[in-house]
Design brief:
- The complex is a heterodimer of chains A (570) and B (257).
- Chain A has 570 residues and is mainly α.
- Chain A is 75% helix and 0% strand.
- The longest helix of chain A has 38 residues.
- Chain A is globular, with a radius of gyration of 28 Å.
- Chain A starts with a helix and ends in a 12-residue tail after the last helix.
- Chain B has 257 residues and is of the alpha/beta class.
- In chain B, strand 9 and strand 10 form a beta hairpin.
- Chain B has one domain: P-loop containing nucleotide triphosphate hydrolases (Rossmann fold, 3-Layer(aba) Sandwich).
- Classes of the chains: A mainly alpha (570), B alpha/beta (257).
């Protein structure tokens, strides 16, 4: 199977080589070009993909094989392809299909390909060699195109078959061209987004912005998976005719879908459709030409700025933060007064707030909580959306929302001890630290203060706004119980000091059981809380033992010794 | 020694924003010389190297290598140079053989010769059995060796080494030092940047000391010794304004009081 994929690379290379005579005339060294493309594609195959990052951490490396990824892409393509069967009119179905296809394509391009585009190593490996600028620029464009076309074809393959069934065999070759056009258009649009970003933010910020894109992407997929089926009745979707609105004609996917209408269903097509189809055919090609001719040169120049800006020039930005810094220092002194604990607090605070990989893993969890909540809240069947909302407001489900936040807590605790730069943690082992528990407790407090508490506060304001101030006692109790859950998790599941372990596969079955036991325990308490909610006073009273329990457990957490801490090889 | 300088740098100036990094640098380097290029951090050392290797295309002044102006034909100059960068950037998902194949072909080498030479060089550097292992499992020293090989694989006239000994063990260091001398006997011109004064002292026949964007000392180790001090380390600290390091250490010691 791997061979098939590798041979698609060869196929693409051969396809590209058809253009070599033309390229050679414009001053490209085709031998070098071929070599660069070959190596870049080879490296792509050996590189793990961000899109399936959730699967990356799983047990074996084989799950990351190119073949597995191709399979997943085809599967995804199949599900999107099902959209084509929704509507009686292929025009509408195809419009929906190309909207999804193009959005997905653009997002994949941004999230998965930026690392390749901004490969700083090129600066040192390619630039000192005798290669002219045009060759480098063309190799970059072709590299993107090959990567994207492969993705497009894999994702489009199932749809190609489905179209054959839905719309007859003649539609298949046209659909193939449509896929290509949609891909070109996505490349064009992404290029414009990149250029705008590069023009408006500094090179350092650029990478951050891209990683927020990636976070947004994973949240979007998650949300659409859970919520779309709840919010929209699929059969209703089939009947909505997007095309009855005039503004729909400004959407590029409509132009591309119009090609099918204009060529296959000629009897139905009016002059507007034909006009749109012409647009759909010419605009992507024009866009591609624009990218290659006008945008790419500036693009490459900007990219090399990003690549070379390895902290060489920016000394100005760091001075002005002093004021904010003070506030954090004061806060840390109040919350964690012991020097060692204080150190643990501050290091976790700063690293968690600044480490991109940690944020990438944890930030999506912030969005998952409300999505989960809506998913469960809207789970009722039969009622209309407004009925369900009505019910929600009169119920006591809001406690559930706070308890769901434990999801964030556990997500943070799972990742806080891991880092790609775990070797810097040698300091913990080299310095005379008697009680690592103090660092751990500082770490725990930092997580709570930096992320969990602010998040809960925001949620609480929302809850009070919807359900009224009677919810306050419940919020406090649920928050305290969440903290207990957090400490339990930290006690049994997190064995490492902050950012001190390599990023590894998920832990074995034994830990799984512990984790489930903790979850069950908290679930039981939470259920007890739910029962108790009838008596306002009882909830207030329950806060006292919860506080006490927190205090006792935290004390024992603080006393953790080196025996309880998992050491990693430095 | 040849009459015509191989590398001519005239009035080279480079600034980042309003910060002047190189202030009108001028120097001639003759074929077969081993240049030891030293200077404190931020003196403009790596900027010079990056301009010489064509990594930084915009600068003021004149860089002429083997009669070719950098501004006219940077590619022709790049063909003459082998460069080993200091920050060990390498495509480490590739194997050494794949990487060297890639680099060699970018220089336009013919495959048969390239593979033969890559194989020979790998075994000469003690990596003969690792030729087909991916480099992401390699130690820093092993990667450094591959980088060194990739810098000399096309048999360049000029070899620019930026801190080439980092991560190498003692035996490899001895080997590289000998290699530098042998290469210079073969007529190669070597531009050697390092902070390791004892190595620079031994391998170079001409030492250039740069400070704050200007060359403040230029000559053989012997001539520098006569004018200044007895070891390169002392000469270095004297010329770069750290004449009295005892006041610094005093300050450090006093900080504990």
């Amino acid at each position: 199977m791997l061979l098939i994929l590798l041979s698609t690379d060869k196929l693409f290379l051969r396809l590209v080589s058809l253009f070599y005579p033309v390229l050679a005339k414009t001053g490209v060294d085709t031998v070098q070009l071929d070599e660069i493309l070959r190596v870049k594609l080879l490296m792509d195959n050996r590189r793990p993909k961000t899109l399936f990052a959730a699967k990356r951490n799983s047990q074996n490396k084989n799950a990351q094989s190119p073949w597995m990824i191709s399979f997943l892409q085809i599967l995804m393509g199949f599900f999107i392809g099902l959209v084509l069967t929704l509507n009686q009119m292929p025009y509408v179905g195809q419009t929906y299909y190309f909207i999804i296809f193009m959005v997905l394509m653009a997002l994949t391009l941004i999230s998965d390909f930026t690392t390749v585009l901004v490969d700083t190593r090129d600066q040192f490996i390619l630039l000192p060699r005798p290669i002219n600028d045009r060759t480098v620029a063309v190799s970059r464009i072709l590299h993107i195109s090959i990567y994207v076309l492969r993705l497009a074809l894999l994702q489009g393959l199932p749809a190609l078959v489905i179209v054959g069934f839905v719309d007859g065999i003649l539609a298949v070759p046209i659909f193939f061209i449509q896929l290509l056009e949609a891909t070109f258009l996505s490349i064009f649009l992404v290029n414009i987004v990149y250029l705008l970003l590069m023009r408006s933010v500094s090179p350092q910020k650029f990478k951050d912005v891209i990683s927020y894109f990636q976070i947004g992407f994973s949240v979007l997929i998650f949300a659409s998976y859970y919520l779309l089926p709840r919010l929209i009745n699929v059969s209703v979707l089939g009947n909505i005719n997007l095309l009855s609105h005039w503004w729909a004609y400004t959407l590029p996917p409509v132009w591309i879908a119009a090609m099918n209408e204009a060529l296959i269903h000629t009897s139905r097509a009016n002059y507007i459709t034909i006009l749109l189809a012409t647009l759909g055919f010419t605009v992507p090609i024009l866009g591609l030409w624009l990218v290659a001719k006008v945008l790419a040169p500036g693009f490459n120049r900007r990219l090399s700025v990003i690549a070379t800006s390895d902290g060489n020039s920016n000394t100005t930005g760091q001075v002005k933060k002093a004021g904010k810094f003070n506030l954090i220092e004061k806060m840390s002194n109040v919350v964690a007064s012991d020097p060692v604990e204080n150190a643990g607090f501050r290091i976790t605070w700063k690293l968690a707030a600044r480490t991109r990989e940690f944020k990438m893993k944890v930030y999506p969890a912030f969005a998952y909580v409300p999505i989960y909540f809506l998913y469960f809240a809207l789970n009722g069947k039969g009622d209309s959306l407004s009925d369900r909302w009505e019910k929600l407001q009169h119920g006591h489900t809001y406690v559930f929302l706070i308890y769901l936040c434990t999801f964030i807590l556990s997500s943070m605790l799972m990742h806080i001890s891991m880092s790609e730069k775990y070797k810097s943690a040698w300091v913990y082992y080299a310095l005379p630290i008697g009680e690592p528990g103090k660092i751990l407790s500082g770490m725990y407090k930092a997580i709570i203060c930096l992320y969990f508490l602010p998040y809960c506060l925001v949620l609480s304001i929302g809850i009070i706004a919807i359900w009224g101030p009677a919810a306050i006692n419940d919020i406090i109790l649920a928050f305290l119980i969440s903290l207990i859950y957090g400490i339990l998790m930290a006690l049994f599941m997190v064995k490492g000091l902050p950012f001190s372990n390599p990023v590894v596969a998920k832990q074995g079955g034994g830990k799984m059981v512990t984790s489930l036991l903790i979850l069950g325990f908290i679930g039981a308490i939470g259920f007890g809380h739910y029962m108790l909610m009838r008596w306002e006073m009882a909830v207030w009273l329950a806060i006292i033992p919860a506080l006490l329990l927190n205090w006792i457990m935290f004390r024992s957490y603080k006393r953790r010794s080196w025996d309880d801490v998992e050491l990693s090889d430095i | 020694m040849n009459e015509h300088p191989l590398i001519q740098i005239q009035n080279l100036t480079k600034s980042y924003g309003d910060k002047l990094v190189l202030k009108g640098l001028s120097l001639d380097i003759y074929p077969g010389q081993v240049i030891g290029y030293i200077g404190p951090n931020g003196a403009g050392k790596s900027t010079t190297v990056k301009i010489l290797t064509g990594l930084i295309p915009d600068f003021e002044g004149e860089v002429i290598v083997d009669g070719i102006r950098m501004a006219d034909d940077p590619l022709a100059i790049k063909r003459l140079i082998g460069y080993v960068p200091e920050n060990a950037e390498i495509y480490d998902v590739l194997t050494p053989m794949e990487y060297l194949d890639f680099i060699g072909k970018l220089y336009g080498m013919e495959e048969g010769l390239l593979h033969q030479r890559a194989g020979k060089l790998l075994s000469a550097f003690g990596l003969g059995t690792n030729g087909d292992d991916r480099m992401d499992t390699f130690s820093k020293g092993m990667k450094q060796k591959v980088l060194l090989i990739s810098g000399i694989i096309h048999n360049p006239k000029i070899i620019i080494l930026d801190e080439p000994l980092s991560g190498l063990d003692a035996n490899a260091v001895i080997m590289i030092k000998e290699l530098i001398m042998r290469l210079s006997q073969e007529g190669k011109t070597i531009f050697y940047c390092s902070h390791m004064m004892d190595v620079v002292e031994k391998v170079s026949d001409r030492i250039l000391l740069i400070n704050k964007g200007e060359i403040i000392a230029d000559g053989t180790f012997e001539s520098l010794k006569q004018n200044h001090s007895d070891t390169l380390e002392r000469i270095f600290s004297k010329l770069t304004g750290r004449e009295d390091s005892s006041t610094e250490t005093d300050a450090i010691i006093n900080a504990f009081d």
